[in-house]
Specification:
Chain lengths: 149, 149
DNA sequence: TATTGTTATACTCTATAACTATA
DNA sequence: TATAGTTATAGAGTATAACAATA
């Protein structure tokens, strides 16, 4: 690392700028085409992979806090894309699942998500994408480890 | 890229999660120790590198829009960290510079910024950091190219 | 007319705290 | 008492539009 500070070479800055550029584009695509916010899209993605998931587990899987999960889930239930079933083992919680409409919407979104990702990351080879994924996971783990400071 | 979508392997998701973890930690560090928001910190960093910069050029250098620059600059002027001089060549614009207090604060922040960056990215070797920097720049360029869609 | 910068406004995202209902 | 989830509120980030002053 440089001993002197230059914003242009400061990794937190580079990470933030790249992430904002990608997030802005993704969020425009989802909102315009499907009326979904990113938090809502993430819940749908997890529910398409694993059915009957509690809000707590959705929070772990999406790295979002319980407030964000609660609001996103309420919006999806309101739209009829997600249904809530009682959890017999714990009356405080419940299971969330995609409805038929939710599955149909997911079937529309998934190809769009992959296409948009493809456009944005097509400057990178398959190996470079895997490398970026691995580097980002290590940075994330390292940043979270010291988060309480 | 996988033909099927898995949130956990979706690069925009990985990028967002890593960036949020880093940004949260950095923003806590700056706010608690120096009372600065990230936008304000970025202006200080650029003004420490280049003196007498117009708001428009600050916006280019920090990748922030003119509204964000304007508000951050106003806050720094209010605190006496930044001074504005008339621009003889264009009365609509002005030059911003760090004051003595601004330079003194920068001298305190810079080592802290480098130390926090060091902690968060110490899981990566010097080469890996350079690689991450380069990959992020390419992703950014690629994401911005299609932003108008 | 076009451009630099400010102000007004609003929407999203995130975080803290208070609350409810169950355990 | 502790936990799962909701609601209330506010701070921060970002975007659009309207505006003032100057080119």
């Amino acid at each position: 690392m440089p001993a002197t500070l230059r914003l242009d070479r400061f990794l937190p800055y580079r990470l933030s700028v790249a992430s904002n550029a990608v997030s802005t584009r993704i969020s425009n695509a989802y909102r315009r085409r499907f009326g979904l916010k990113i938090a809502e899209w993430r819940l749908i993605a997890i529910l398409a992979e694993h059915d009957r998931v509690t809000p707590a587990r959705l929070g772990e899987a999406t790295r979002m806090d319980k407030i964000t999960v609660s609001r996103a889930a309420a919006a999806l239930v309101e739209r009829g894309l997600v249904a809530a079933d009682a959890n017999p083992a714990d009356g405080r919680s419940h299971f969330l699942s995609l409805t038929g409409d939710g599955r149909a919407l997911y079937a529309e979104i998934a190809p769009v998500a992959l296409a948009v990702e493809g456009e944005m990351f097509d400057a990178l080879s398959r190996d470079e994408r895997a490398l970026l994924d691995a580097l980002l996971r290590r940075v994330e783990a390292s940043a979270m480890r010291g988060e309480q400071e």
